[in-house]
Amino acid sequence: MRCPKCGYEESKVIDSRPSENREAIRRRRECLRCGSRFTTYERREEMPLMVLKRDGAKETFDRQKVMNGLLRATVKRDIPIHVLETLLDSIETELRDNGITEVTSEEIGNMVLKRLLDIDKVAYVRFASVYRDFKDVDEFSDELRRLAL
Questions:
Q1: Which of 6, 21, 64, 115 sits a CA distance of 20 to 30 A from 39?
Q2: What is the pLDDT of residues 94-125, one digit of tens each?
Q3: Where do the structural domains in the chain lie, given as residue ranges?
Q4: Which regions of the chain are under pLDDT 50?
């Protein structure tokens, strides 16, 4: 494992434990050259999950891309990062448990929205405004009315 600070390839494991969702092993490491400490996660290798984009392109599922969208939607909201990680874990687990190897970006967006609604309605509206790409205020108002019901 390459040190993120100095690039040295040798490190030692200081601590190892299951992640909160038990889907990975969290390892705390220390670089043998500079002494910098960093965390790595070890997950089992699985078939890549392919995302079919709106423009017809295919790309591998990028967990960080979805997380970035969630972080933007939850800015200044009191939502711990582990809640967002759990949300993402549940989406990935649902897709993999159903044997799905290809999913549309729309389906992923809907899965995120469904879960965000239970967590924080403001974050839901923020995520929906970007994901659904509202064209005008009327579309946005319709979504707010639907949410209020």
A1: 115
A2: 998 888 889 999 999 999 999 999 999 999 88
A3: 11-42, 50-148
A4: none
pTM for this entry:
0.65
Contacts 24+ apart (CB under 8 A), 29-35: 29/1, 31/3, 31/5, 31/6, 32/8, 33/3, 33/6, 33/8, 34/3, 34/5, 34/6, 34/8
Distance between first and last Cα of the chain: 51
Give me the sheet containing 25-31, strands edge to edge. 11-18, 25-31, 37-42
Cβ-count burial 49-63 (b if 16+ within 10 Å, e if not): bebbeeeeeeeebee
